[in-house]
Design goal:
With 271 residues, the protein is α/β, with parallel strands linked by helices. The chain has a single domain, classed as NADP-dependent oxidoreductase domain (TIM Barrel, Alpha-Beta Barrel). The protein is built from ten helices and ten strands. Helix 3 packs across helix 4. The protein is globular.
Length: 271
């Protein structure tokens, strides 16, 4: 396993397991158990996923020492603003059966800057109180990060974004790198829609298309959080540290950028 270090010195694995859309408690528990057996130690959830309790129970059942796991959750859009954010954090801690989160993130920026600033102050409060080790954001584009940095006391340490060969913003990545913001990639597997080029490149390395996409992120210093309910694929996705993608193939993958999103546009989405 390889690790990255956040701007506050906190270390985290270079790959994690995502739990988006795994709402069934029993299924989520089994997937987490399979992920632990495969070697995953970073688990990404969110209040809106509805599976924090199942994740917390699975970690307890598997008797994994708390310090060996990196837990991420995110404040629900409906719970933004200062007081609701803090209340929702305490609820998340109870569901996850832990005294602290390794990272707590704003899930979406929306279009209300006052709401974002209020929510961020709550995260700063939680950080000072030791309820969270690191704070960050999801789906923040460059203008939204710039606005947040103008008003924050503790800068964001993470920005979790959709990042694939079909959607990547070099300017955003450069900004995050220069400001000590670790980028994480959600939905890094293109939801299984690989096209023709990606499988062909993957064959050169005797790897799956999914493994190629994960390695593409990791080689850029970006932490992917793939999700799979299939135990074999889940284990395959973790096995991406034994090869490197050649520069010519990285350039080919980078050249596939279409600005193609699979979810909301953060610059226009609101709630």
């Amino acid at each position: 396993m390889q690790y990255a270090a956040l701007s506050n010195g906190v270390k985290l694995p270079m790959i994690g397991y995502g739990t988006f859309l795994i709402k069934d408690g029993a299924l989520c528990g089994q997937c987490v158990t399979n992920a632990l057996e495969a070697g995953y130690r970073l688990f990404d959830t969110a209040q809106m996923y509805g599976n924090e309790a199942a994740l917390g129970e699975a970690l307890q059942v598997n008797h994994i020492p708390r310090e060996d796991v990196f837990l991420i959750s995110k404040v629900n859009n409906s719970d933004q603003w200062y007081e609701p954010t803090l209340a929702s954090l305490h609820a998340s801690l109870e569901k996850l059966q832990t005294d602290y989160l390794d990272a707590f993130l704003i899930h979406w920026p929306g279009q209300n800057r006052e709401r974002t600033d209020s929510t961020w102050r709550a995260l700063e409060h939680a950080s000072r109180d030791g309820l969270v080790k690191s704070i960050g954001v999801c789906n923040f584009e460059l203008p939204q990060l710039e606005a947040l940095l103008q008003h924050c006391e503790i800068p964001p340490m993470l920005n979790q974004i959709e990042h694939t060969p079909l959607l990547h913003d070099p300017e955003l990545l450069s900004f995050c790198n220069s400001h000590g913001i670790q980028v994480m990639a959600w939905a890094p597997l293109l939801r299984g829609k690989f096209g023709e080029v990606i499988p062909e490149i993957a064959k050169k390395y005797h790897k799956t298309p999914a493994q190629l996409l994960l390695r593409w992120n990791i080689q850029q210093g970006i932490l992917p959080i793939p999700k799979s309910k299939n135990p074999e694929r889940l284990a395959e996705n973790f096995n991406v540290f034994d090869f490197s993608i050649a520069e010519e193939d990285m350039l080919t993958l980078n050249g596939m950028n279409e600005g193609k999103r699979t979810s909301h546009d953060p610059l226009t989405f609101d709630f």
